[in-house]
Amino acid sequence: MNKIFWPILLALTLSACGTTTGTQATVEDRTGDQTGATAAKPAGADSTGVDGTGVAGSALPADQYAGDPRKDPASPLSKRSIFFDFDSYVVKPEYRPMLEAHAGYLQSKRDARLILQGNADERGSREYNLALGQKRAEAVRRALAVLGVSDAQMEAISFGEEKPRNEASTEEAYAENRRTDVVYADE
Amino acid sequence: MLNSSYNQAPLIEIPDPMLRAVLFFPLFCLALLSAPFSARAAMEIQVIGGAASKISVAMVPFQAAPGQPVPALTQIAGGDLERSGQFRLVDVGGMQQPVAPAQVNYGIWRGKGADAVVIGQVAALPGGRFEVRFHLLDAVKQTQLAAFSYTISATQWRPTAHQIADIVYEKLTGIPGAFSSRIAYVQKQGKRFELRVADADGQNPRTVMRSNEPVISPRFSPDGARLVYVSFEDKKPVVYMQSLRDGGRSKVAAFKGSNSAPAWAPDGRRLAVVLTRDEASQIYLINADGSGLTRLTRGGNLDTEPVFSPDGQTLYFTSDRGGSAQIYRVAASGGEPRRVTFSGGYNVSPAVSPDGRHLTYISREGGRFRVVLHELASGQTRVLTDTARDESPSFAPNGQAVLYATVQGGRGVLGTVSLDGKTRTRLSESGVDAREPAWGP
Questions:
Q1: Which residues does the UniProt record annotate as the domain OmpA-like (chain A) (predicted)?
Q2: Do A124 and B362 touch (CB under 8 A)?
Q3: Among A125, A135, A151, A155, the residue to mutate for chain B (most B Cβ within 10 A)
Q4: Labelling A87: which of B25, B53, B281, B384 has CA 20 to 30 A away?
Q5: Among the listed ranges A50-64, B42-56, B69-83, B331-345, which one has the minimum average pLDDT value?
Q6: Which residues in chain B (176-205) have CB-CB distances under 8 A to chain A?
Q7: Does residue A63 belong to any structural domain of this protein?
Q8: Nearest CB to A31: which of B12, B24, B206?
Q9: Which candidate from A6, A23, A34 shows the least CB-CB separation from B8?
Q10: Does B250 lie at the interface with A, CB-CB under 8 angstroms?
């Protein structure tokens, strides 16, 4: 029921925000911006993106995932995080049962697509950490490939240090953030 | 005439359905309305230390006709000069305000230690415009070093002041000034990320893109008209290009896997990017329109953070191919990379000076990440900072200072440091986190 109201909400929001954008342009005018040019463009970018997201979000029925083995806490498919030691990109043996379960699921559902999201702790360069997170994602991708998962079903990406699970600057937090998350594209 | 086109920095807003829903409530719209005002909050500037011998300049407040606004021209230009660490401002309190060189009593200014005197005046013109005239005078030789006149609008006081500072700097040091240049950086406030462009002194910040997902690695095109950056708005890193004139955006690299670390070739037509489409992070060259992809580095190692030399012939980059994070160089035409840094176990984020003679990068030593200056010919290095979590160094367009990010009191701040390490400034705004700075033209 709630979802039906989303498009209306969004439409109202859009019209409300037209005002906002206009005001921003006016403010920027004092800094020497050309007001006319700045006012129209962002509003256009807003409407396109919001409409698109609204449609995608309301298409799925609420009970889509009822009985989904990936959501069953008792299933190894519900386990989604692989943690790494400091400066290490080796998938530890303890994750084998979990990865085998995901490999089996992907082989049984050929249209399922998996995104492997690598992460790094906050120390050092953001771009270098992005590449380190990628190494952790690739390590899991290779492990799944060895278990027979098709490359076409997997994408290894990195969030680097940008999306920490634990934002503290402690060794415990760093360990939590040296991680690859296993996420299905339809989730 | 002043070029005012740089001020056109339209705002791009990355939509988020949740945020939009919240915005439905008028109260939140009001909150957003006030946001641009906070965006104008001035950054606070602190100068720490400075060169031993400085040029003394008297910046005499410019004279304006009665009833006209007296803009802070000499204050802004003086601040620019002072921040460079190469100038000392002579106290001008209670002094006469000459507007023409013939009215200047050089003896008085010499008595106050001035090596040079800047005088000027502002006159209102029809149509809300102004004429700014200024003279730079050598107090020792009692000669005029420079004189300029600008016709400007009421929104151009700051750029005019920066141009005056550039002229004074160049006439007195022999090196072009960089005060009219701009910086880009990412500001994080709560869960919101803003890509901002500001004057080189951190003032006049303008938000050019907003997102609920991280944004990193902004880089100005060589002509300053465009920014490339990495945005996570597509739930993965994708390289975007954005015009600073009209706000138009396009994806430069959105291949399977991660897309990051964009770097402009000096001709502004090509970029180096880091892709993972074939295997681990590798460096590729791509045209600015996203066509013509070619692979530059090979091997199962991690290669990232490419940057072109000013002649476009060489790229410097970070790699772990030797077992630790070090800086390498490779010909833009390909070939075998050569290692550049040898000391320490972590040297990352290289940037090349405009004359191609120096690198600056971040080096880890004893758990501290600090800005290093590296002379390429001799291999000699100098640590420029005494902070512990420095990131993202980049050279000023005139090569005289390095802009970098660091952490102070638990939050991200931007700073500059001169090449001798003696003059450091902080550009900071209270309550926000600033990171990922890049110095542009």
A1: 71-187
A2: yes
A3: A125
A4: B384
A5: A50-64
A6: 204
A7: no
A8: B206
A9: A34
A10: no
Whether the pLDDT of residue B78 is over 90: the answer is yes
Point out the residue among B8, B247, B280 whose CB comes nearest to the CB of A135: B280
Q: Domain containing B119: what range?
A: 47-173
- Distance (Å) from the alpha carbon of B8 to chain A's nearest alpha carbon: 5
Tell me how far CA of residue B3 lies from CA of A32, B8, B267, B389, B427, in angstroms.
Answer: 11, 11, 21, 37, 25
- Closest partner residue to B204 (CB to CB) among A12, A31, A157 is A31
Of B173, B196, B219, the residue that ends a domain is B173
Q: Do B167 and B189 share a domain, yes or no?
A: no
Instruction: Note whether B406 and B391 are within 8 A (CB).
Output: yes
CA distance B353 to B333: 21
Residue at a domain's end among B126, B142, B173:
B173
Give B183's strand partners: B198, B439
* Angle between helices A126-146 and A96-108 in degrees, nearest 10: 70
What's the rounded Cα separation, in Å, for the pair A127 and B259? 11
Task: Answer yes or no: do A177 and A120 share one domain.
Answer: yes
DSSP B302: -
Least confident of A12-26, A36-50, B419-433: A36-50
Q: Is the pLDDT of residue B383 over 60?
A: yes
Per-residue pLDDT, B32: 35
- CA–CA gap between residue B357 and residue A179 (Å, rounded): 39
Asked if B8 and A37 come within 8 Å (Cβ–Cβ), the reply is yes
Label residue B50 by pLDDT band (50, 70, 90): low
Residues of A in contact with B407 (CB under 8 A): none
Q: From the candidates A114, A157, A183, A187, which should be mutated to test the interface with B, based on the most B CB atoms within 10 A?
A: A157
A119's tokens = 């992460």
**Whether residue A178 sits in one domain with residue A157:** yes
Establish if B430 belongs to a structural domain: yes
